[in-house]
Structure formats: structure tokens, C-alpha cells
Amino acid sequence: MNDRQTIGKLGENRALEFLEQQGFHLVTRNYRHGHGEIDLILSKEELLVFVEVKTRTSRRFGFPEEHLSWQQISKIQATAEAFLAAHRWTNNIRFDVMAVILSPRASVRHFKDVY
């Protein structure tokens, strides 16, 4: 695993821990379909949440959430459609972004229903 993958995994772990404390349950991690990937898929009651985790080691190059492109969003949405079709989910869904900064002071910010 390279440094970028390690940083990404650390961010996903922090985001998952945060969401589990909010009562969410992990459905799957790193779900892939075609050319797209969804970092975390979680559920809570009748809600399924697709989560993109953006992690940075600092704010030196801006906030993590500023690095989410429309191309990435399009791939996430297409991947979510494939997941929904395969699992026949008919209840509510939401797309969230988790912004994780690892240092100097670690922080996790949760943006709900982003797109």
C-alpha cells in the first residue's frame, strides 16, 4: 500500500467510526462497479447512505471537500445506481461527504445530502 492509499484508509476508518457513533451500520466498504467506487455504504433504519471520504494530512492545499470533482460525483452516482439495482433497495437514499484532516489537529466533518 502506498502513502496515498494509507492516508485514504486512515480517513475512511475515522469517518466510519464517526458514523457508527451516530447510529449508522456499515453495509460495505470500497464498493466497485465499472470505473466507479464508493468508499462507504451505510444504513440507518430505512436510509441507505453513500459516502465519499476525502482525506488530507493538513489544510495546506485547502479543505478536503474542495477536492471533489463533478466527474467523481458522476461516477459515484452511476456506481450507486448499480448497487441499488443489484440489491433491490427501494427505501430512501442519500449522498454524503466526509472531510477528514489527519493533522495537526485531527478533524472529521460530515456534509449530508451533498448531491
In words, what does this structure look like?
There is one protein chain. This protein has 115 residues and is an alpha+beta fold. The protein has one domain (3-111): Trna Endonuclease, Chain: A, domain 1, CATH 3.40.1350.10. Helix content is 32%, strand content 37%. The protein is built from 2 helices and 5 strands, in the order αβββαββ. The protein has helices at residues 3-21, 70-87; strands at residues 25-33, 36-44, 47-56, 92-101, 107-111. The chain has a 5-stranded mixed β-sheet. The mean pLDDT is 94.
Contiguous helical run count: 2
The CATH C-level name is: Alpha Beta
Distance between the termini: 30 Å
Radius of gyration: 14 Å
Overall 3D form? globular
Low-confidence stretches: none
Q: What average pLDDT do the residues reach?
A: 94
Number of strand elements? 5
Beta content: 35-45%
SSE topology sketch:
Layout: H1 3-21, E1 25-33, E2 36-44, E3 47-56, H2 70-87, E4 92-101, E5 107-111
Parallel strand pairs: 3-4
Antiparallel strand pairs: 1-2, 2-3, 4-5
Keywords:
115 residues; alpha+beta; Trna Endonuclease, Chain: A, domain 1; five-stranded mixed β-sheet; 2 helices; 32% helix
Summarize the structure.
The chain has helices at 3-21, 70-87, and strands at residues 25-33, 36-44, 47-56, 92-101, 107-111. With 115 residues, the chain is of the alpha+beta class.
